[in-house]
Amino acid sequence: MGKGTLSSVRAIEPTRRRKEAGPRTAAWHDRVALGKQARLHAPLEDHAIFDPTELRADPVELLGRQGPSRVAELLPVRYGRMVSSPFAFYRGAALVMAADLATTPSPGLRVQVCGDAHLSNFGFYASPERRLVFDLNDFDETLPGPFEWDVKRLAASLEIAARSQSFRRKEARSIVLAAVRSYRESMRAFATMPNLQVWYARVDAENLMTRLRQVARPERLLRVESLIATAKTKDSMQAFRKLTREVDGQRRIISDPPLIVPAEELLPAADAQQLHERTGELLAAYRESLISDRKHLLDQYRFVHMARKVVGVGSVGTRAWILLFEGLDGEDPLFLQAKEAQSSVLEQYLGISEYANHGERVVSGQRMMQAASDIFLGWQRTNGLDGVDRDYYLRQLRDWKASAEVEGSLPEGMSLYGQVCGWTLARAHARSGDRVAIGAYLGKRDVFDHAVAEFATAYADQNERDHGALRAAIDDGRVEALEGV
User: Fold this and answer.
1) DSSP string for residues in 311-326
2) DSSP letters for 191-232
3) Which of these ranges, 27-41, 270-284, 343-357, 410-424, has the smallest mean pLDDT?
4) Out of 250, 269, 301, 422, which residue is the most buried by the measure of CB atoms under 10 Å away?
5) What is the DSSP letter of 433?
6) CA quadruple 36, 38, 42, 48: dihedral sign
7) How many angstroms separate the CA atoms of 326 and 331, rounded?
């Protein structure tokens, strides 16, 4: 194995397939047959296909459809962030890609999909056992769907990110191929494992560093070690020091419009007071979505203040609140984030969710796909001051969260990162889908890898055109954007 490369996903895989598989049941062989039969419906080579016609929906018009349900004054921030680069546009254009993926061949092998599995939606966070783990960390669009939709979203994001760093075409292709190969080989490995072994599989920071020390250059290790060290500083206390100040003896969230705006600055005084009082009732409803020990822990905190916060790229305009709680004393804070959960962008193509509450949809999908989830992860439905019911999910605002920065990446580092993402996505899909059938469908050869890499190249080209369309719409005044925020 050459320095700085991974000859196999096993270099980062924390689990191993069984050395000797026991006798396979007829049901297991039926699942293998199902996967191989799916190739007749969607040959592996067909995953290269992306051939949009003149009937393809206007991407700017599609994005505009999401506007009416969002906070109007924040839409210019969303468009300003998306137009900053093709990669930023891609991050915010999950709906556009969902519309495109709905026209592509599919073998019909479904899993719980993330729905927005681009590389920036993977990263580190703290497990309940206070270990730093690596996993998917955004599930706003999660829904049961075709496994390859997530794989193609990840692959295209790597191609687009590689272009943003001016990597050579050959380097970009190698990065994408390595990530998809990691997914395929990992899924085939998971297909041989017992159910509990799949369920308990995870990548934690300690294990990842052990593996990387075997293959990565020293300067790359230093960057990862720095990322991990920084992640461990991002917790409620860090947020408390950065986002609050003392006012008349009470801690209050600072104002930094339009990114952070306390409730009392958004509303007339009477409405702000009503919102504060109603929030107590809403937290009681959220509490019921937690398991018993987490309810007990939450009860030891007192809600003191709230503010609206702008988050992400594609999520800008959906309602997101940060909630400050006080525990034992003034130096025992808890920050929760309540984020609005609207219908998944996948629903119009894959069918509506089985969950009546979209907050519950997000939480259930997250728990299904993640190896470990935030201890305060829960949901509620809120009737706002405007009389509109809205769904929310809640979790800690910061709990050792960090993801890799695209800017300044080197091909070697992005390749390693992509392979970890590929393994992670395979493990997430293996928990909910038929991993035996999917592994059999993907096969031992690299046909799927090259097909998806071809798709990623074609889709990156399309993404650049779509980004240009948004730029043109802003320049001619059809879309209002607030750039640099």
Assistant:
1) -SSTTBTB-EEEEEEE
2) TTS-HHHHHH--EEHHHHHHHHHHHS-HHHHHHHHHHHHHHT
3) 270-284
4) 422
5) S
6) negative
7) 8
